Amino acid sequence: MSIQSVVRCESYDQSVMNETVARHFEALKVAELLSPGTRALIKPNLIAARKPESAATTHPALIRAVALWLRERGVESIALADSPGGLYTPSILETVYAASGMKALGDVVELNRDTGFQTRACPPDFENASFNLINPVCQADLIIDIAKLKTHSMTRLSAGVKNLFGCIPGLQKPELHYKHPNIAGFSNMLIELAKLVAPQVTLIDAVDCMEGDGPTGGTVRRLGLTLASRDVFAQDWFAATLMGIDPESVGMLARAKARGWLDPDAIELTGDAPVYADPPFILPETTSVDFTGFLPAFLRAPARKALGRLLKPLPKVDPKKCVGCGRCAESCPAHIIRIENHKAKFTAKGCISCFCCQEMCPAHAISVKRIFGGRTSG
Ligand code: SF4
Ligand code: SF4
Fold it and tell me: 314 C-alpha vs ligand 2 centroid, how far in Å?
């Protein structure tokens, strides 16, 4: 049985967050995971230098509440670490900490500034032989994954599993995109990474979430919840249902279920009654509408293959919004973006539709173009 804790909260007021975390951790018996000398790691979503109000990053009040809870139980070693999108350098970390409100948490956690990593081998039945993980992940013996609930242009859902992609250092993330250019392979890679990192607790900040062009370019959507579980896959399955997204349509979750790592029937709710999004969350522009449905079943796959180029979502730059910062080019695993005359120029050939460029653009200058199809909700 997988216990799924649900707590309603309508604000990020610190006392509300403290009470929320206490209720979750009581329900999940997190105190049993602590021992003298526990080295705890808090892994928030710090995808980019965004303000908490943008709902792209985990809210600092929830992180402070977790750190205070651990401190009250005698845990002295509490690190906070993430590898944001793009370069992984001490100066970029400082910028992200400042914008996201993490800098103010320096009195309760140790903000990571070590940009080293170590290679960790995967079990023999994994398709990935190993992963390079940032040092704080390798050094911790209690990992608390604190994700933000968002839609995602490539994976559809960004929650506990996707948040752990930030355990991969810097530009090794786009390299993994390139190594796994299709959603099936990329999803499988993400769940193997999650299984290797194995966070003991996953918390989801779903008070203010993001819908539409997540994980950075969408709009704020209030759900008024926090969620917690000791099972990251079950947690994400449940979170998807709250958003009105069919969990089976999320590659990571379908694959985790197929591999026997997730049993949706074994999720047992505790705490407050959940809130289900009505209407469902708006999905990213990249979400395909499959118009081959009118064809006989045996013709659908060949039709999709033949029309693949037309169906494929591709990034498009608005030159009026582009400020020529180069963050998109730096993050493009296919190296098909160049900066000319202070504007980004894309070559469509070679694009793997990973949308790292859109994710990293601070000016919201990148949208998605597709000859067929349109935006959908969950
Ligand atoms: S152009 Fe954008 S979507 Fe295409 S491969 Fe590069 S980063 Fe990915
Ligand atoms: S498209 Fe966005 S990320 Fe790329 S150079 Fe322009 S402003 Fe920067």
Answer: 15
The pairing of beta strand 267-271 with beta strand 2-8: parallel
Are 301 and 359 in a shared domain? yes
Domain termination residue (choose one: 271, 303, 321) = 271
Residue nearest to atom 5 of ligand 1 (CA): 351
Ligand 2: list residues with CB < 6 Å: 317, 322-328, 339, 344, 360-361, 363, 365-366
Condensed to tens digits (0 to 9), the pLDDT of residues 281-322 reads 999 987 644 444 455 556 656 665 555 555 678 899 999 999
Distance 94 CA to ligand 1 centre (A): 26
Identify the domain containing residue 310 by its residue range. 291-369
Residue nearest atom 8 in ligand 1 by C-alpha distance? 354
Residue 374 within any structural domain of the chain = no
Say if pTM beats, i.e. exceeds, 0.85: yes
Structurally, the chain folds into a number of domains equal to: 2
Pair 155, 65 in one domain = yes
